[in-house]
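#struct-help
A.M.: can someone run this one for me? Single chain, 458 residues.
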Amino acid sequence: MNRGRTTLPTLVLLAAAMLWAGCSRIEEVLESIQPDLTPHESYSEALRQAGLSESAMAVAWAESARTALETAVVVETPYLEAGYFAAERPEAVAYRVSLKRGQALFVSVEVESGQPAQVFLDLFRTIPADDDDPVEYRRLTGAESEASRFEFEPSRDGEYVIRLQPELLRSIRFEITIRRAASLAFPVHDHDSGAIRSGFGAARDAGRRSHHGVDIFAPRGTPVLAVSDGEVARVRTGGLGGRYIWVRDAKRGLSLYYAHLDRQLVRTGQRVRPGDTLGLVGNTGNARTTPPHLHFGVYRRGEGPIDPYDFIHQLPQDPPGLDVAAGVLGEWFRTARDGTLRSSHTARAAERAALPRHTMLRIAAGAGRWYRVQLPDGMTGFVIGNLVEAAEEAVGEASVAAGQRLLEAPASTALAEDNLGVDETLPVLGRFAQYLYVRRAGGPTSWLEAGSGVAQPR
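D.P.: on it. Structure tokens below:
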């Protein structure tokens, strides 16, 4: 397989040498960093105190951390991705997920490296931009030092970005798993959200009031369960709720309301855990003319009732299995036919770019049947796995005149690696825009601008 080569400028090579020499100094500085900094911030500060923050590699590392947030790929959960970071290429990757209030986010990373390597895992909330201001990314949480996982429950609906970045000069393979789940357990034994027949906000009493919870229908006597750790705040009978129970969830600042019970099986002040039986489904109170069901409500002080649905709606937890060979990660491939670069790992995702046949792309990661790829101009997205093929066999030949520049990248500003001394015919392995990806004598690869001095491949 022909590996796409990243030719580093001399300054970057010198910076790498400086960083290798300064590794012990960075470790010393990290031990003295103030604890209120995040692991990512601590590492940046260690680079600064070690006198390395202005090196080309460190500047590229910091810039990749910023740009990853702006170019985050959209993923649908549950999501499992296997990826690769190359030591010679400072990179970060970010994933954008939509979260609703009441859901919980779980993120974990497994890392394989030839030497000890630290990875930084952070979560940001996107702050919508004003007319004159760019989008802001506010860090909320992340993995602690030496940890590789975190969980988070949002206080509002929104777009959130997960960023993953390794320390400098470490080649690592990784697997990242991203899941969303209901933050609370389901309150009726052996049932799920399919049993909800009346939702939050539905009209009641000919529109004079609205429904402040969800109704979960189940046979009379079905156990009603605690949905979280909490303390029974009240066990009463009377009014609209008939036999009802209030449980206080202090961790989340919520009051949980269970109504229309046939029986109550706990007492005020009792501590409960998820799955403990609180009572039995019935139709007491104003539900006496309806089939047995549990009215379940979620309240927050100062706010009142909150739609419980996303707090208890159970989501899929098993991501599609990986269908990617570790050996392809970090390698350059090409499209075997005309295709599409998409914003996410589904066929219905938005189209980011058309990919003509033989377009070169680097496989950064795999997720299910999809590859997350990067085009030579830096654009990222997803392609279906069967779209790509190895860029080994030539797809044509290009006649190149003497003096033509051989470039390290497909851009007019790219550094010239060499100039051809004589007319040559070079095998073409792929293309990008008006540039051809060619193999030179002896095996190295370079880019050529098609046009003057270069005949289009046959």
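A.M.: thanks! The radius of gyration is 29 Å.
D.P.: also worth noting: DSSP finds five helices and 34 strands in the chain.
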